[in-house]
Amino acid sequence: MDESTPAFAIAVAAELAGMHPQTLRQYDRLGLVSPTRTSGRSRRYCMRDVMQLREISALSAEGLNLEGVKRILDLENRVSELNLRVHELEAALADELLAKPGRRVFAAGAAGEVISLKAGTRGERTDQVVLWRPFTRRDSQLSP
């Protein structure tokens, strides 16, 4: 059994979250927590739902209204999705780099763009040179 296994009836989930069962029904109607349903249409909550109910309770105690709580939960879910996607892309990039060692070379163009080159080739030479050094307190003391 993991955190997404629907295991708790509404009374048990309400007790675990420290809420009244009617509050859980209201949150379900508002879309704050959407438990799975059995074939008989009764609600079944998983541990992730209970944790979300506890988070709703904490945010409400801090003074947020339910619309604000919903917005925060939506944003947190979106961040989780994006983090998962970043990890997937990082893994794909790592696989790509491991599969083709030494075949990808990058250079900086005159306008700062990234240019992909074949291994063993050089970027186009120009007479433009860009130097950058962070401005320090010592530099300001040297200025007239």
From TrEMBL:
Signal peptide: none annotated. Residues 7-75 form the HTH merR-type domain. Pfam families: MerR_1. InterPro entries: DNA-bd_dom_put_sf, MerR-type_HTH_dom, MerR_fam. Coiled coil: none annotated. PROSITE patterns: HTH_MERR_2. Keywords: DNA-binding. This is Helix-turn-helix transcriptional regulator. It comes from Rhodoglobus aureus.
